[in-house]
Write a structure and sequence with these properties.
Helix content is about 50%, strand content about 10%. It is mostly helical. Belongs to the glycosyl hydrolase 47 family.
């Protein structure tokens, strides 16, 4: 039952919390202001390249490589956790894009067929951990089962960072001797060939007048598809997260089109209207084919 005494306690408690929050905000704001006042930016070429100056404090940055000793217990725990998750995926859903551990089933991110999201996305971790047998089985699946001739739409962003990025990472690590049983004397051309195939298909997502990529792409038809739910807009975060993969592919293939297309996105974002200095979370793209 609500009494006047209870109501008064609630009101006083709310006032106390408000005063404490205000005091905390003021103290935090004061600390931030003090730190801001102490920070000095670099003064052009007069600043020594290996020093950062914060008012009176001069911090020497290391000029040589730093080697930290491994923590075997933590390292082995992380590796064991990965092996536990991976073995379940191999057992129940190998080849599927996603794994559902409770139902112990797999599913794909398209209605037609998957393209090995989980396998390719995990392969560089398998290489880094030196898991020889897991690597052999995953590579064999990629070699014998993977195809991008799938007549369905795939998210441009997810496919770029997980599949294209995974293939490029594995290509690099395939000749990097973290594990002699996995590494080759030369990079494994299988991964670069597949990356080139996928990259060429993903380029069709950039078929807009502005140059911004469409949210989806039909890999078989090489056709960019807009996101109907976003009304002609694309996520700024997604459009601006393709550059590493596309630019590295351009470097490896010596084909500037991948660099040009992805760099154009950053220029559009840079030139877009800002509100209080902030770029909007969605940007409108034109759907007419670019000339």
């Amino acid at each position: 039952m609500w009494t006047k005494r209870k109501i008064a306690k609630i009101i006083l408690g709310g006032i106390s919390i408000g005063l404490l929050a205000n005091q905390f905000f003021n103290v935090s704001r004061l600390k931030i202001d003090n730190l801001t006042n102490r920070f000095l930016q670099y003064k052009g070429t007069n600043q020594e390249p290996n020093k950062v100056v914060v008012k009176d404090i001069s911090l020497e940055l290391p000029t040589t490589d730093i080697y930290l000793e491994a923590d075997p217990i933590k390292r082995d725990s992380v590796k064991g956790a990965f092996q536990h998750a991976w073995s379940a995926y191999e057992r129940d859903a190998f080849g599927f894009d996603e794994y559902h551990p409770i139902s112990r089933t797999g599913s794909n991110l398209s209605r037609s067929k998957g393209i090995g999201y989980t396998i390719i996305d995990s392969l560089d971790t398998i290489q880094l951990m030196g898991l020889t047998e897991e690597y052999r089985r995953a590579r064999e699946w990629i070699k014998s089962e993977l195809t991008f001739e799938v007549d369905d739409k795939f998210n441009t962003f997810e496919t770029t960072i997980r599949v294209l990025g995974g293939l490029l990472s594995s290509y690099y690590l395939s000749s990097n001797p973290f594990n002699q049983n996995i590494a080759l004397h030369e990079p494994d051309a299988l991964f670069l060939d597949l990356a080139a195939d996928l990259g060429e298909r993903l380029l069709s997502s950039f078929s807009t007048n502005s140059g911004l990529p469409l949210s989806y792409v039909n890999l078989k038809e090489r056709l960019g598809i807009p996101d109907k739910d976003n009304g002609g807009f694309i996520s700024t975060a997604e459009a601006a997260s393709l550059q590493i993969e596309f630019k590295w592919l351009a470097e490896l293939l010596e084909d500037p089109v991948y660099w040009t297309k992805s760099e154009r996105v950053l220029q559009i974002i840079k030139d877009s209207p800002k509100m209080d200095g902030l770029t909007p979370i969605f940007i409108e793209y034109a759907l007419q084919p670019s000339s």
